[in-house]
Design a protein that fits this description.
The complex is a heterodimer of chains A (441) and B (567). Chain A is of the alpha/beta class and 441 residues long. Chain A has helices at 6-11, 52-55, 105-109, 134-142, 178-186, 193-220, 223-243, 270-286, 320-326, 333-356, 412-421; strands at 3-5, 39-45, 83-89, 116-117, 127-128, 147-151, 164-165, 171-172, 248-250, 292-297, 308-309, 314-315, 359-360, 363-364, 369-374, 386-391, 403-405. Classes of the chains: A alpha/beta (441), B mainly alpha (567).
Amino acid sequence: MTEFSRRRLLQGLGAGAALSLPFLRATPSMAAGSAPPKRFAVFFSANEPINKGYWDPGVKSGAALPNKLPDMMSPLEPFLSKLNIIGDLKLKTRDVDPHKGGHTGIGHTLTGRINSPFPNASSEGQYWAGGISLDQYLAQKMGVEALTLGAMPGGGSSGASRISSLGKDQPVHPIDDPKKAFDKLFANFNLSEADAAKLRAQKKSVLDVVAKDIARLKQRLPSTDREKIDIHLGHIQAIETKLGEVSQISCSPQNPSYPSGYDYKSNKWLPTTARLQMDILAQALACGITNVATFQLGNSGSSQITPMWPEENMNVNNSYHNVAHDWNTQSAGEANRKAIEKWNFKMFAYMLEKLDSIPEAGGTVLDNTVVLYAKPIGTKHSPYPMLYILAGKAGGNLQTGRYLSFDQVPHNNLLTSICNLMGYNDAKFGDPNICTGALAL
Amino acid sequence: MTSRIAPRAPMRPRPWSRLSLVGVSILAAACAGSIVEPDDREGNGPGSTGPGKGEPGGGSGMSAQALCVDSSKIDVGRAPLRRLTRLEYANIVRDLLGDTSAVAQAFSNDEAVGGYDANSVASVSQLQTEDYLEAAETLAASAVANNLSKLTTCNITESSCGLAFIESFGRKAFRRPLDQEEKDTYGQLYSTAKGQWGASKAFELLVQAFLSSPSFLYLVEETEAPAPGENVARVTPFTLASRMSFLLWASGPDDALLDAAQDGTLDSVDGVKTEARRMLDDPRAAEAVISFHEQWLGITHLEEAAKDTTLFPEWNDKLRHSMREETRRFVQNVVLSGDAKLNTLLTSSDSYIDAPLAKVYGVAAPNKAFDKVSFDASERSGVLTHASLLAAHSGASETSWVHRGKMVREQFLCDPVTSPPPGVESNTLLDPSRLTDPSCSGCHKKMDPIGTGFDAYSPIGVLRFTDEKGKAVSELGEIFETDAEVDVVGAFEGPVELAQKLASSEAVGKCVAVQWFRYANRRLETAADACSVAKVQEEFASSKGDIRELLVSITTTDAFRYRTTAE
């Protein structure tokens, strides 16, 4: 293992082309010899899990999972003992969201709240999430920066393409370029201490001017616009904090290799992008750079994704979203639909495999993590029944290998349970009028 | 050149003719309650918002004019604070530093409001804040190392040179003169940095700080003091200059425009018009005009369009870029070098293509890439038949009645289509049952019957006799009547005829004016904007659809020259 010092990372600032501002904080508990921290990860994929007939493991709630899962979910079979399938929850917040359409669920998924529509918006597609998402909430509690990665997350112009949020109208855009993500986390530089100090001082001199400009500007703005500037100032202050930090991490990150012609924005390379991002996510957790990470494969509808990937044995020549809509009216529809969902589970299994392949005290990184598999909607774009999967044992606090059904129970309760598993005894998460408390996991 | 579909197909039964016409007439009044998702592209589609609820034209978008009751009373909708778009950032650093390294391409995607990139709702993210700082570092280092003479010509080691630079560069970066406090802050940065790290680094850090400042990154708008009791006031001349340059150049003002703000030229409507016309004659106008059209027509979707290469082996990234380039050149030639008429944009059979596109269009390759060619006028008519538009509004393997119809319905008729409710069953892209099922047809009759008229143009825009399933194609389409005031109701045969209809429609002219209004102000029109919208629509009509004059007209509206003050 190579010793990486945070100071080393910070020393790179200003060193020519690679100017990445590093992550906010390394986790204090990663000092040598200490117990592994609790961690939370999310794997998000688009559309609905077809319907219950395709994912129901066919056992009673509370029972052990059978050795064979429905075909669509078979990629998960190697990890049966390390996950729970959570069926039949309801995205109950959608009952109170004024936009009743099917494409709003993504904003509710990690926030447990209704969305915040754009001013004057008449289309349901124009909103941002209406509150803080679970990943950001937990990261703040833990004092780490949440890692937010995506593969072709698309858009950026509305909440239908974002799962993470710092608050109402504060979407967190995922890093969609693996190279940018790796540089932010692991960029490696060689500078003398004197040069590093100089670069830090130069950066600080600029940030000081920016902070003064923000304070001046704020006085000129109408009150409705001041919040935006305050949030900008908060980011500047967080960056100033980063500049002053020194801490240790110990790991040996693998520099990703990119195939010839690789383009992270291209549908053609989506499977490559997904795996690269999950490699990085696993390393970031294992190296203790963060304890909270999300990965979104596509977005709410993933209409920008067309699963034509011969190397994956995928030859669906229609957009994922269209297939999700027309699966039951076309001859190849069902086969295509199942193939795409199976591939999603294959990607989720890849994430689990990565986390499970890194040993650490008491087992593997997966054993000390809770990984949530989430999709934005239920059958026929409806809020019910939802399918979730919780993988990982939360450091031994979560019994796994079971099917658990919580019929019509608000999904907020699952989010609350995850808070509890991370060691925070919140009684509710998200909309308090919807959430009724943690699930009995 | 002869038409490849020489005799037009005889009138065949329309695909939707089997549906109950009684059901349609009942549902004609409202799209609400209809179901299948019309455009699943996540939010950044053209016209993904219509006019606000309870606002003028809610549901129709075309009746703003009717609500302008007193044009002497000045009223405007609220303009929220917005950040630069990626295009604006790129253009500004090109103009300020001579930098064309496309650093802004790595920024997070822009947020669209009313169909046009605006960045006005969400607050900036941590990642974007870091990206701004890193971009500023990269740009400043490169500018000082490679292009210092563009920044300053005096001796950078002399303090007077540094202070002069702060004033001149700051005025362009902030798009207004710096106040004394700002001069002091930046002066202090300069002198401290020069003392510690030398004059060259001091200049670099100045550029870095200017490019990282919110006064650069946001379009900060200021007004004169409002009259007592009023909550609307004229924007300052410098704010007006910025509004003009972001509309007409998608960039910041140049020195001449800032001078016009400073010397009072922009205080008069004539002065504003003179400057607007100068700016439209400047090459910088091209990026702005092209950007509007790409967003308006949804050409932006081409970037993410995937096509089945077993069906369309000619499809690749080069062809995709050629398609986009064709439309860029066509728009630029019509609007900025040509007669600027909406009619020409919709009906010209001239275009600019390269060899791969020549195959798509079934014509001989031009001598040089993107030379002007003339298509058979019975096959192609303006932007509606551009391969870029046809490919952007199609699936990977089949065309899309919904996407093509929705584009025409929302972008040319300003008649928005809402999204489906949950719990609905869904259909294929080319499924006529959407028009027979009363719970679907309310919305789908707005879209699908227009989309069928495009069926002779493949998912990559090739004119063909049979569709992807081998069936003979019909070009029959129809614009159904809805509650929107649309004067182009009725049947048509193919997009060429549709384009002619749209080009001569008064309603389409009004809608195009509304689209430009949204682009110019980066927000949806509200009731308070009714008189501004009406003025632009009237002047556009009296100029016989002159898009350059439409832009000049927008710069003279109350919505453009005033803003709300009290909050």
